[in-house]
Amino acid sequence: MSTPATAQRTRQNILAISLLVLLSLLGGFLLPLLILWVLTFTNFPAFGNSNFIRSLTTVAQVFFCLTTVAGAIWAYASRLHTQRGDNPHYWSTHFGPGLLSSLSVSGIVTVSLGLPLAATKLYLHGISGDQAFRTEYLTRLTDSLAPYDMAYPNMAPYYPSAWFWFGGRFANLLGIPGWEAFKPWAIISLALMCSLFTAIWCIIIRPELGIIIGMVTALVTTTYGSPEPYAAIVAMALPLTFVLSWHAIRPYRGALTKGRYATGGVAAILGVGACTYTLFTALGAVTLILMALIVTIHRLWVDRRELRQLAGKKVKTPGNTGITPDSVKLRKLRRHIWQPIIRLVVIGLISIAISLIHWGYYLISGLGQPHSRSGSALHYLPSDSATVLLPMFKSDAVGLLCLIGLIWLIVTIRTSRISQALTIGIIAMYLWTLASMSSVLFGVTLLGFRVALPLTLTFAIAGVCGIFDATHRIISVAVRHVVIDATTTLDNDATPLVLAGQTPRYAGTTDA
């Protein structure tokens, strides 16, 4: 039974986490806006013609990376302090370090894109290629609150409109045309979501690990996905979705009441993602279905004997219409077995309901109308769509990080919940790639080359976990003669400091 002090501490922790999420959103919007506003008063040369702006960009990136690392060190030191006998205060372990790091990650994205583009009002690649229709789409939704097609008036949009609609409201807020708002909105939206995801990672796993994951997410996404900002936002959410989905489908300790908040979070991410970039959202849905099938089949196999025994003992007599103890156990066991499928259905219904904000208008207006069978995105087949994506063999730092991630996933697949979640997500992405290659037999493609960004990002995050895990094991071996088993001083009222991870750290226990 929890004491009043424990209940008060829980309320304080919830308040700290809520404020962290809200302030990461607010700061992730205001800080990039301030930096971009200051850059409008400069006369820096274009990035491609001078190393002057390249030098300033590098210095700014190093500064924000160092402040992010400082936040991770702060979080780690605070967590050790609370685990040496003090009560866990999220204000020191999560709120302070998380807010500092969220703002720093937002700054990394802003200076990486804002400084090189300070000499122009256009975004990456100007208005050439796909940026032409993206600029057109944002301009259309700047002039109209109703979602219309980018090229044809009064026609429902097929392309997801969420990012462009909010970009239009951003342009209205500043009083600038849509084409001019494209650059600041792309940078601010990327920085804002990086800030938010860093805060969420800091909450659901060990805060210092979550902070570094947020920084790596920002760096990898800015490097490989910044030309298409709305797709990059959904790609950043995929690894987070994998971890939350695994917690929703296979709750920690297997409790039926656990994972409800994760279920709601996954449904919200998939629903909003479907209104923003459908392809990456489909990857998250495929991963969720794969997880539900794996857990259900495993539980059916493990509990098959007990299920048959309980079903055989359930008998009804004319004079006894009550529920026998065996029937109660049978009902609980069946509920336990089919819980992943039930959670899958709940997530699917909620996410579909949210996605109808965009797709409902398109489906209703498109009833009975002819559709083109050629020239769509599903007929685009570049060379990247005909090869298997292997980011771990790139000859750069990201390739090395992905290789470390691959090794860590293989080594820890049986013990780490994060490893299991990311592995299933990677398998789902490779299955999507193979399905895309096979679909050419039917005259279409599933755009398998688009999987490169979330696949690289997932491997990179696994690499960060691998580095942390290896460092922890090395330190544990070095000081194993002074390490106390975390289960020996477990308080009955203690709750895990982390939602997912290899080993839960409890309040009142000792760390290495």
How far apart are the first and last residues' alpha carbons, in Å? 29 Å
Quaternary organisation of the protein chains:
single chain
Q: Look at the structure and give the mean pLDDT.
A: 84
Strand content: under 5%
Which segments are poorly predicted (pLDDT under 50) over 5 or more consecutive residues?
481-512
Helical segment count: 15
Q: Note the run of SSEs as H and E.
A: HHHHHHHHHHHHHHH
As a percent range, the share of helical residues equals: 55-70%
Task: Spell out the key features of this protein.
512 residues; mainly alpha; 0% strand; globular
Structure description:
Helix 9 (260-274) runs antiparallel to helix 10 (278-302). The radius of gyration is 25 Å and the shape is globular. The protein contains 15 helices and no strands. The protein has helices at residues 4-39, 51-82, 90-114, 130-143, 162-174, 178-204, 207-225, 229-249, 260-274, 278-302, 304-313, 325-365, 397-412, 417-438, 452-478. It has 512 residues and is mostly helical. The chain starts with a helix and ends in a 34-residue tail after the last helix.
Quick summary of this structure?
With about 500 residues, the chain is an all-alpha fold.
Question: Secondary-structure map with pairings?
Answer:
Layout lengths: L3 H36 L11 H32 L7 H25 L15 H14 L18 H13 L3 H27 L2 H19 L3 H21 L10 H15 L3 H25 L1 H10 L11 H41 L31 H16 L4 H22 L13 H27 L34
